[in-house]
Amino acid sequence: MKIKSVRYERLFNVGDYQNETIGFIADVDEKENPNNAIAKLYEMVTKINRAMNELRKIAGRLQTLENEEYYCGSLLYTEREIERTKRQLEDAIKVSPDAKKDTPEWRHIKRLKEELDEHRREFKRKEKEAKELTNKYQTMIKNFKKGIVEQGYK
């Protein structure tokens, strides 16, 4: 029997009840072993699947970071809360100049400022992560379009 072409195809579950089929057909030379050709196709399909999984993972994390934009709103809210409470205390001191700054209200402002600083640090960390992931995603897509599958993938 003379084998002229081989085909390898595989169905992958990509989550949310969705599947993706990746496969290839290759012509086999007279001198080439069909088993070796199928092994090469298997390797190609596996590499592409790993690359696609990595792209989906990055896209999912970017979506999560985008959904967490409430940090921006949280920062603004905390800043406004600090300013509002500060004005109230300053007004109270004008009315009663012997009021001390070591009151629960002033400690509350200090706590709010610490919380605000923590939110800012967290926001910067997430912003940096989103930028790095975006760059990685774009590089992977460019390489993928050029036919470079194994470079830059786990």
Please specify the SSE layout and strand pairing.
Blueprint: E1 5-15, E2 18-27, H1 34-67, H2 70-95, H3 104-146
Antiparallel strand pairs: 1-2
Helix pairs in contact: 1-3, 2-3
Task: Give your account of this protein's structure.
α1 (34-67) packs antiparallel against α3 (104-146) and α2 (70-95) packs antiparallel against α3 (104-146). 67% of the residues lie in helices and 14% in strands. The mean pLDDT is 82. The chain is of the alpha+beta class. A two-stranded antiparallel ribbon has the order 1-2.
Short description:
The protein has 154 residues and is α+β, with helices and mostly antiparallel strands. It has 3 helices and 2 strands, in the order ββααα.
Distinctive features:
2 domains; rod-shaped; alpha+beta; 154 residues
- Tell me roughly what share of residues is in helical segments: 55-70%
The helix-strand sequence is EEHHH
Strand content bin? 5-15%
Radius of gyration: 29 Å
By DSSP (H or I, 4+ residues per run), the number of helices equals 3
* Secondary structure: number of strands: 2
The structure class reads: alpha+beta
Total domain modules: 2
Major sheet size, sense and barrel closure: 2 strands, antiparallel
| Average pLDDT reading | 82
> How far apart are the first and last residues' alpha carbons, in Å?
40 Å
The outline comes out as rod-shaped
Neighbour order of strands in the largest sheet: 1-2
Q: Which spans of ≥5 residues are poorly predicted at pLDDT below 50?
A: none
